[in-house]
Design goal:
Elements: E1 8-12, E2 15-23, E3 26-31, E4 38-44, E5 47-55, E6 61-64, E7 68-70, E8 79-81, E9 101-109, E10 112-121, E11 127-132, E12 136-142, E13 148-150, E14 161-163
Parallel strand pairs: 7-8, 13-14
Antiparallel strand pairs: 1-2, 2-3, 4-5, 5-6, 9-10, 10-11, 11-12, 12-13
Length: 171
């Protein structure tokens, strides 16, 4: 198909439903329907699969049917990053929020949370660990200066390691 630099239009009963176009060196695929998704499907051993859905009613959120590989073509898990040297995932809190950013982990049973944990870093450089079942509580904190606090939020008496059990223990 040679559109000679023009757009390729998809119409249904004369109404535009989508199109392919070139802008600079970019190929654009557009669904013209308001909130209409873009869905990538295929044939996997005789069965139809939806590999990827771009949800236009949610600003283009991407939903993958199975695994995502970053730096690998054979991911072993739902999200698998592979490469040489130090490997990192970056999560930014862009508003200098005191709570910072973090990772939230859950264990579910029939859709209900039975266990949860969060690891966060705040804007003071404190790395905080929260755990719980129906709700979470902070259990461990590594302060920005390297001191470690268990069961509290501040080093007791300036100790390098503080264990706060109702304020009773300092190591």
């Amino acid at each position: 198909l040679d559109a000679d630099g023009g757009d390729i239009l998809f119409k249904d009963a004369g109404s535009l439903i989508g199109f392919l176009s070139m802008a600079s060196s970019n190929l654009n695929l557009t669904n013209n329907a308001s909130n209409g998704d873009i869905i990538f499907t295929g044939n996997d051993g005789g069965s139809s699969v939806t590999a990827l859905t771009l949800d236009m009613s949610d600003a283009g959120s991407a939903y993958f049917n199975n695994k995502v590989g970053i730096g690998t073509t054979s991911p072993a898990y739902k999200l698998h990053q592979s490469g040489t040297g130090l490997q990192r995932f970056q999560i930014d809190s862009t508003d200098n929020n005191a709570n910072g950013s973090g990772i939230y982990l859950r264990v579910l049973n029939s859709g209900s949370v039975v266990s949860q944990s969060t690891v966060t870093i705040d804007n003071a450089g404190n790395l905080k660990f929260f755990t719980g079942t129906s709700s979470e509580a902070e259990r461990l904190r590594i302060l920005g200066d390297g001191n470690v606090v268990i069961g509290g939020t501040a080093a007791l008496g300036g100790a390098k390691l503080s264990i706060d059990h109702s304020g009773a223990a300092i190591i």
